Amino acid sequence: MKLLSIGQFAQLVGLSVSALRFYADSGVLLPAQVDQESGYRYYLPTQIPLGQQVAALRKLDLPLSDLSALLVAAPVQVTAILERHERRLLEQFEARRQMLLDVGRVLEGQRALPAVDAQYRQWPAQQVLSLTMSAEAETFHASYVHSVAQLHEQAQATDVQITGGDFGLYHSQEYFSGPLQTEVCLPVNRVLTGQGRIRCIHLPAVSVVCALHPGTWHTFSATFGALYLAASQAGHQPETSYTLGTPDGTELGFFLN
Questions:
Q1: Most trustworthy range by pLDDT among 84-93, 122-131, 220-229
Q2: Contact 216, 171 (CB under 8 A)
C-alpha cells in the first residue's frame, strides 16, 4: 500500500504538520513508518479516518489524556468523557462570562472601586486543619469545594470536633492574577498530626479589616481592592487576605500587622 508523506497526510485529515508531530510524540497518532536516516514520517491511507477523528476532537479542546482515552473507549466511556468535558467547558464559560461582565462594570464606573463598609475586629486564635491548593480562576470554586471536603474527611477520620466554618487564606494581595494559591482552613478543637498534604497549624489572634461581599466569587477582587484602599488610608498595612462564609454572605478581609 502506498505511503503518504506527513505533508500529504496533514492535508487529508485537517491537521498541521506540527500537530501531527505532537500527536505522534504523545503516542496518540503514530506514523506507520519513520525513515531511520532522514527521520521523515509516513502514514498509511487506512489511518486517514483516525487522523480525521483526532482533528475533530482537537476542535473540542479536549485535554490530551481525555483525547487518548476517548480514541480507545467503549461507547459508554465515550459518553462519560464527553460529559465531563462538557461540564468543564461550561464552568470555564461561566467564569469568563462573569469576568467579562465585571470588566464592563469597572469600565462603566470609570474604574472606580465599590463602596465598602469596612469593619475592624479581632480574629481569634485557633487551631486549624490546613490544605494548600493552586487553581486558575475557571476551576477555583470546584477546587476549593474539593479541598474543604478533604478537610472534613480528615476531621471525621481523626474524631476531632470542627469548631467553625471553613475559610481561605491568600498570602498574596493580588486576587486571580494567574494561578491562585490558597490555604484552605477548617477550625478544630485540638492539635492533630498532619497527614499527606493536610497540616495542622495554630493561627494566633490578629486584628482584621473586613466587609461582607455583595456578589459572587468572580468579583472578590473589587471588594478586596476597596478594603485594601480603605485600610491603607486609615494608616494600616493590610497583609494576608481571607474569605469566610457566614450566614449573611461571604466575608472578605485582611489581616493587619
A1: 122-131
A2: no
Strand boundaries in the chain, DSSP class E: 4-5, 33-34, 41-43, 119-123, 126-135, 167-170, 180-188, 199-203, 206-213, 238-246, 249-256
CB proximity list for 122: less than 8 A, separation 6 or greater: 205, 206, 207, 208
Q: Specify the pTM.
A: 0.56
Instruction: Cell numbers for 219, please give them.
Output: 468579583
Contact between residue 134 and residue 185 where contact means Cβ atoms under 8 Å apart: no
- Say which amino acid occupies 165: G
The pLDDT tens digits for 23-63 are 998 888 999 999 888 889 999 999 999 999 998 888 888 88
Q: Alpha-carbon distance 116 to 212, whole Å?
A: 8
Average pLDDT over residues 238-246: 89
